[in-house]
Structures are given as structure tokens and as C-alpha cells.
Amino acid sequence: MIRSLLTSVSLLLLLTACANHSTLLLPAAGTWTSDTVLLGLVVACRGGNMDFSEHHEECNQWPLSIPSLPHPEIHHAELRAKAAQQYQTDAATIVLKDVQVLYNTELVGTIRGWKASAIAGKNPLTTK
């Protein structure tokens, strides 16, 4: 009885505690032109278990994991908003390149959290 209980608990801990990180490269957001001003690196994150954030910033925590990868536009929107705040400019003028997303996936394949990073630029010709 105790042995089966310990086995069940250890299996549950194994399934919930083990996580895998996978990386996805996304296409650029916006058009880079000769007038685009390079702003720098911008990082945004969401979800739980975000201990790999080198900026030690608070990520918006999710109460549960999500079943599938978010749409790429979610990452682009978060990065644009973060860049607008970080570089004090209008989000509509932000363009992104070299977008990389690091996912924290659980053993069963659900997404526990993500961290996106990109090179941000300001394109004065961009209007949305």
C-alpha cells in the first residue's frame, strides 16, 4: 500500500517537475528599411517556471499550462509593447527582427511558459 502510494507520488512529481526547453525562430514583424533606427534587444515573457529569464523580471503568471503554442502574433505584440515601453516610443513604429522564442514545455507537451527576444527598431514610416 505504502509502496504503491510512493510510486504514484514519485511518478506525479516526475511528470510535473520535468520540463523541456525548445526554441522557435519566428519571421520578422514589420518592414526594415534604410530609415529604420536600431533600438536594441527587447525581451518579453509569459507563464510559469520562467527561471531562465536573465533580466529577473516578473512574467505574467498563468494558473494553468496552455495546450498548444501561441500564435506568432502574440509574441510580436508582446515584444512591440515591451519595446515601446523600454525605448519610450509608439508601438506602431516598432519593427522586429531575429525573433526567437524559448518555450518551457512539460513532459506531456503542454506549454508552461515562454520567453521571446528580438532586435527592435523604430521605423518612422510605419503606420498602423
Question: What topology, given as strand order, has the largest sheet?
Answer: 1-3-4-2
Helical proportion, percent range = 10-25%
The ordered H/E elements are HEEHEE
Oligomeric organization of the protein chains: single chain
Detail the topology: elements first, then pairings.
Blueprint: H1 2-17, E1 19-26, E2 37-47, H2 72-86, E3 94-106, E4 111-122
Walk me through this protein's architecture.
Helix content is about 25%, strand content about 35%. It has one domain. It has helices spanning about 1-15, 70-85, and strands at about 20-25, 35-45, 95-105, 110-120. The protein has a four-stranded antiparallel β-sheet. By secondary structure, the protein is an alpha+beta fold. It has two helices and four strands, in the order αββαββ.
Care to give the gist of this entry?
The chain has 128 residues and is an alpha+beta fold. It contains two helices and four strands.
Descriptors:
128 residues; alpha+beta; 4 strands; 24% helix
